[in-house]
Amino acid sequence: MALAFSAAGWAADSAAPRFQVVYEAVLRNGFTIRHDHQEKLQGTTRLYLSADPSSGFVDVPTEEIVSVERQEIPLPPPATAVATREEVERWVNSASDQHRVDPDLIRSVIKAESGFNSRAVSPKGAQGLMQLMPETASQLGVKDPLAPGENVEGGTRYLRDLLVLYNNDMAKALAAYNAGPQRVAQYHGVPPYRETHAYVARVIKDFNRTKLAARAAARQNDKTAAPTSKKQRAEETKPQTKSQKATVPVAN
Question: Is 113 designated active site?
Answer without folding.
Answer: yes
